[in-house]
Amino acid sequence: MSAAAVLRRSLPLICSRCRRSYSGPDGDIFLPAALSKVDPVQNAPLVQAYFTNGFMISGARVMGSVALLPRGMLHWRVASKDDLTPESFSLFHLVEPKIDVVVLGTGSKVERVDPAIRSYLQRKGISLEIQDTPNACATFNFLLDEGRLAGAALIPPDYVPP
């Protein structure tokens, strides 16, 4: 199955605003209205804060779960660890440059996930790090600061201490 076909099939699981994908002249895949470009001069989308209903990413308030890429972000249709499937991680192997590691924030506490998710990402050459969301935010920021090609899949925590 082609990368475009996988993306079209899994897009409803990945982002809430995408209607379809488009192939560019060089075979690039574009996701209208979903990808928030970040100026490369200002580095990547850093997580500045997290809330029970979303995140503050590079000055923008994002509601709900989010998938972060080295140069952008997507709304991610995952409300809890029960919604996680291998298909919900498909976008991380379709982006260029290739992501080395995905940091998964499972909410207020570290949750076990289906082993098929880790296997899926390993087959694509991507490591998976599972943490609670507060630590996943810090780890993602640290990896980007170190120049790593990292992605993050973040579910808002149920509780944020005052």
Automatic annotation (TrEMBL):
Assigned protein family: Belongs to the NDUFAF3 family.
Protein name, as recorded: NADH dehydrogenase [ubiquinone] 1 alpha subcomplex assembly factor 3
Pfam families membership: DUF498
UniProt xrefs under PANTHER family: NADH DEHYDROGENASE [UBIQUINONE] 1 ALPHA SUBCOMPLEX ASSEMBLY FACTOR 3, NUCLEAR PROTEIN E3-3
Intracellular or extracellular location(s): Mitochondrion
Keywords: Mitochondrion
One Gene Ontology cellular component annotation held by this UniProt entry: mitochondrial inner membrane
GO biological process, one term: mitochondrial respiratory chain complex I assembly
